[in-house]
Write a structure and sequence with these properties.
This protein has two domains: 184 residues, no CATH class; 100 residues, Histidine kinase-like ATPase, C-terminal domain (Heat Shock Protein 90). It contains twelve helices and five strands. The protein has a five-stranded mixed sheet with strand order 1-2-3-5-4. The chain starts with a helix and ends with a helix. The C terminus is likely disordered. InterPro entries: HATPase_C_sf, Sensor_HK_TwoCompSys, Sig_transdc_His_kin_sub3_dim/P. Keywords: Kinase, Membrane, Transferase, Transmembrane, Transmembrane helix, Two-component regulatory system.
Length: 402
């Protein structure tokens, strides 16, 4: 597995662990909030330990239901634990209401219950399920407050804690699900791109060589049949087969040569796709200038080498490709962050420096902290000098000049 594949997989694994601990940790957090409010409640005798036990059981049961959801367990098991959690919450609120009014200690466990109930719905309907659960919790709090069984502070905390806890849990799970689907889609897109390129090359090779191979097969059959009847004609057919084989070899080389052709615009597009698939924010020019074949090939090799190096040897988060045309020269610059400490020029950079030098250009590279800059400059080929108009005028007959 390459570095390009390892980094997204590692990040997704970290997100998975973070999501799991956030999901499981929501239970103890809700229990801690309930304990703080129960500590200030006016409960005497056995009422306080009973209420505390009910809050603990409610948080534990609902956290278990959330853990079962994380591991893909069926709904019936989760609903059993959810029902037990709801029963413990109601029992604890009743214990508190017998000595005083219901306080805000039950708002956080209620948020866990709303989150688990919202996860029963389909992914596209969970937002509405959250709103429905929040509305049910507020309606229950309003009824109890109207009957004088709930403090105003408890109603206010229900307005805050229930949507905060329930929405946080559901949104965190949704965020992880989206990240996992994006990673899967990225892998599928890469596989499809490779398959598409293979099909394109195979189709082009079939179109070019299909006719040649069919002709060779037919000529060979004719020569085999004429071998015992007319040796001269059989030899002529074999010479034709030889010529067809040479043409087929020439066409194959032409196809492979075109397949390996390096164009600056294509290399920039390829670099953008590779960097995006590696999770690197890439900035590339909208269009590349039209240059001669040799210049485009060298500048395309520069972009390819820079992209390969930063994916293999660096851990970038951003990269930039720019093209500057000044006077009679063209400069392509590739910049990225996350570069390691320099350890000397590699074979790729040495090759580029040599080839650019042979073409009258230059290659420069520099480190600035974790920032690496690779710049290649080539002269633009000068257009051929056109003949002067007065020399053309001499070729015009005198009678046409008047």
């Amino acid at each position: 597995m390459s570095l390009r594949d390892e980094r997204p997989a590692r990040d997704l694994s970290r997100l998975r662990h973070y999501t799991f601990f956030t999901l499981i940790g929501s239970g103890p957090m809700a229990l801690f909030a309930a304990a703080l409010f129960l500590a200030g409640a006016r409960l005497d005798g056995t009422a306080l330990p009973l209420a505390a036990g009910a809050a603990t059981a409610s948080a534990a049961f609902c956290t278990t239901a959330l853990a079962l959801h994380w591991h893909g367990q069926g709904r019936w098991r989760r609903r059993i634990f959810w029902g037990a959690s709801l029963a413990m919450l109601v029992a604890g609120a009743v214990v508190e209401a017998r000595q005083s009014s219901v306080g805000p200690a039950w708002a956080a466990p209620a948020g866990l219950l709303v989150a688990e109930a919202a996860l029963w719905a389909a992914p596209g309907k969970r937002a509405r399920a959250l709103l429905a659960g929040w509305g049910a919790a507020l309606a229950a709090a309003a009824v109890l407050a109207q009957a004088g069984l709930m403090e105003r502070e408890a109603v206010f905390m229900s307005v805050l804690l229930v949507p905060a806890i329930a929405g946080g849990i559901v949104c965190q799970l949704w965020h992880y699900q989206v990240a996992r689907e994006l990673e899967t889609a990225r892998g599928v897109a890469a596989e499809l791109a490779v398959a598409e390129e293979r099909l394109r090359f195979a189709g082009e090779l079939h179109d070019v060589q299909g006719g040649n191979l069919q002709a060779i097969a037919l000529k060979s059959q004719v020569a085999r049949r004429l071998l015992e009847v007319d040796a001269d004609r059989a030899a002529a057919e074999m010479r034709a087969v030889e010529d067809l084989a040479r043409d087929a070899l020439k066409d194959t080389r032409a196809v492979v040569g075109g397949y390996r052709k390096v164009a600056l615009a294509d290399e920039i597009d390829s670099a953008a796709r590779i960097l995006k698939s590696a999770g690197v924010q890439a900035t590339v020019p909208d269009a590349a200038p039209r240059l001669d074949e040799d210049t485009e090939r060298l500048l395309g090799l520069l972009v390819r080498e820079a992209t390969t190096n930063l994916i293999r040897h660096a851990e970038p988060t951003a990269a930039n490709v720019s093209i500057v045309e000044v006077d009679a020269s063209v400069t392509v610059t590739v910049t990225n962050n996350g570069a390691p400490e320099p350890v000397g020029d590699g074979n790729g950079l040495s090759m580029l420096t040599e080839r650019f030098g042979e073409a009258g250009g230059s290659v420069e590279h520099a480190h600035d902290g974790d920032r690496f800059v690779l710049k290649g400059t080539l002269p633009r080929p000068q257009p051929p000098v056109q003949a002067r108009p007065r020399r053309l005028l001499r070729q015009v007959p005198r009678r046409l000049r008047r």
